[in-house]
Design brief:
Blueprint lengths: L4 H4 L9 E4 L3 H27 L8 H26 L1 E4 L18 E8 L5 E9 L13 E4 L3 H6 L7 E6 L2 E11 L3 H7 L14
Parallel strand pairs: 1-2, 4-5
Antiparallel strand pairs: 3-4, 3-7, 6-7
Length: 206
């Protein structure tokens, strides 16, 4: 039996990993999954109602309900796989205020210099290396959240001040140098850490 083209060229699923999250993240995941289940029940009721209205070939309500159910099913499957593939460790941000600063770790504020290998252009960024999914920016200090599992964080975590690492980022080959490491202040954390939200994950087609 020949292999299906779709299966030959499908991108393999990501390898399991450890994802650091803030306390309450696992509860948010569970609540999101329950909300999807409730939404699906309502859509099934809409589908049954539309089915009772006659000819399915011209029944746009039936088709819309059917498509919506499929979309919810895909999102539930993707969320379920996201949870099953990964290990989630909850970390209290209060511990970030007094961490040792010998090497760059989750919870540190760091300035990173990025040099593009091809163009030699230099850029400097100041980040709070934070838990999964954080994207906020502090309007007072200009510090941005850098999720610990992002390509830039993965390439610099564990480095000491002055240490460099040449890596291939989505934008191309770059040399990253850690220029400073410090602990955040309580005010910075209050401005940067937003309400915990469920992950934005792409649908996984079967």
């Amino acid at each position: 039996m020949p292999l299906a083209r779709k299966r030959i060229f499908r991108i393999p699923p990501p390898a399991p990993t450890t994802i650091y999250v803030r306390p309450g993240y696992n509860r948010v995941l569970a609540e999101e999954f329950e909300a999807l289940k409730v939404k699906r029940v309502g859509l099934v009721a809409d589908k049954v109602e539309a089915h009772s209205q006659g000819d399915l070939r011209e029944n746009f309500g039936f088709k819309a309900a059917k498509d919506a159910i499929r979309a919810v099913d895909r999102k539930m499957t993707a969320l379920d796989r996201f949870v099953a593939r990964n290990t989630f460790i909850e970390v209290d941000p209060a511990s970030w205020l007094t961490k040792p600063t010998d090497t760059l770790q989750l919870g540190h504020v760091t300035t990173i210099e990025k040099v593009d290998v091809a163009t030699k252009r230099k850029h400097r960024f100041t980040f709070l290396v934070t838990t999964h999914g954080e994207t906020a920016t502090d309007p007072e200090s200009g510090i941005e959240c850098l999720p610990h599992n992002s390509p830039l964080a993965t390439a610099t975590l564990g480095l000491a001040v002055g240490a460099s690492n040449q890596v291939r980022l989505p934008a191309g080959e770059s040399i990253l140098t850690v220029r400073s490491i410090r602990n955040p202040t309580p005010a910075e954390l209050a401005r940067l850490l937003t309400a915990i939200k469920p992950p934005e994950i792409a649908d996984d087609e079967p």
